[in-house]
Protein 1
Amino acid sequence: MIIERFEDEDALSAALATFVLESIVKNPALVLGLPTGRTPLGLYRELRERSGGNRIDWSEVRTFNLDEFAGLDPSHAGSYRSYMQAELFEHIAIPDSRIGFLNGAAQDLAEECRRYDDAIEQAGGIDLQLLGIGANGHIGFNEPASGLCAQSHVAELERATREANADRFGGDWTAVPERALSMGMATILHARAIVLIATGSEKAAAVKGLVEGMITTALPASLLQVHPRVTIMVDPGAAGLLSD
Ligand code: GLP
């Protein structure tokens, strides 16, 4: 595991954007796994700004987002699909057909999860998976549990996770769906390379567990320790509990 420390969130976002854009230049058909949440907002701002005027050719890139709320139409203002449209997809020239997303409004959610895993496999697997991390150590919506799902699945959300997502639902955590669809641990760990980003002291305990703790399903991100190509990018707050 490589740990990269940055002086602040802006420096982290800029460095990750550089890495993503260089990866696309090297491999124009890059298969890119994407997170949502507050942490990647700076990354998406940098990607928008630096892709303008067709400076970066996104036409062959494929994206697969990590997760989506169950029961929400993709056009719902609280959906992760809406977040991605507003933060990135509307601003870059990527064909809609190359954007992979779990559809939270699908009639048969189990079938939708199978479709998604098949689509990732047919794309040749994910080349670069970007991840955030929940304060409780979740990645995607793989919440701490006695067992974790390998494949994409329907997840029950912890209250803390719903509270952390309340800002997309008018600040009311009870309006946040109780369930979500998420890539599973194998879906994530099969990516050829993984970069996890964490900022702020509320992530410090999860980051310490992820980097220095035992591998445990009680902290799903700790499973990243088994992957051969993982980089953790942190600001001083998130790095606050790491040993030097
Ligand atoms: C959310 C998402 C995750 C995200 C994490 C951290 O619930 N499902 O994919 O990485 O929590 O979010 P944030 O960056 O807002 O702290």
Protein 2
Amino acid sequence: MEQNIKFPVVDLSQLNGEERDQTMALINEACENWGFFELVNHGLPHDLMDKVEKMTKEHYKKSMEQKFNDMLKSKGLEKLDTEVEDVDWESTFYLRHLPQSNLNDIPDMSDEYRTTMKDFAKRLENLAEDLLDLLCENLGLEKGYLKKVFHGTKGPTFGTKVSNYPSCPKPEMIKGLRAHTDAGGLILLFQDDKVSGLQLLKDDDWVDVPPLNYSIVINLGDQLEVITNGRYKSVMHRVVTQKEGNRMSIASFYNPGSDAEISPASSLVGKETEYPSFVFDDYMKLYAGVKFQPKEPRFEAMKNASAVTGLNPTAAVETF
Ligand code: OGA
Ligand code: NI
């Protein structure tokens, strides 16, 4: 496997100094060639990140581990004699922040964990909006363009998927999370700094996204591919399981609002575009049933709204 010698790491603090141009160029290069980059000096306090990690790991032990083990039993996954291709080896729960928070409806969270996650999410929301403007600058779009597109009538959708990928006795038999591209806009991931597992597909090779202390991994979803008319692309990624160690990952999805109208930005379209225009929620309805399939047929299906009505999402998975 190709190793991650050049995996793009962006020091956001350099945007304020002499290195600004190089940093903007590095972000652009990462968006064009990787669909992923890792941010350091992003402004999120390290003690807050420590607290989020500690509380998430405690919460897993207290409220999730037993459920995960019960799931293994009920699905007959304890032996793993043959390869499993329709289940993920992950334990997750979802928090929604925007347009309306559901934090108070999630069972088994202590008040302190709730408050900590609320603070963490607010800072990530601000970071996502700053990043969207950096993307606009690199794309020659006016400041605020992407935020405005994502706004729809109710503002963006912002949510967090809190995951743990427990150690797995036979990693070759099952993925932590099967390969997919993300449907939405910008994804901000706080991943375990010790246990690895996230990989992205680059030039037909699976490349590790290396754990890096206090970093936030950014990747781009299908909507940004459509809006940028393919100048930036969403990239396939997956999580592999590990024999040793429980991997924590907290993925926050900054997505368009449900009624946001998505289409390629006219300044990025030449004569014609191969990308569709649609309402974001219609895309999500389609995605729910075909998440683990390539994105190109999704884009094709969205070109014709009537094709979409004919599709029947099979899995009502909660996804952002
Ligand atoms: C996802 C995802 C990666 C991870 O939830 O879409 O890609 O490391 N997660 O959990
Ligand atoms: Ni993903």
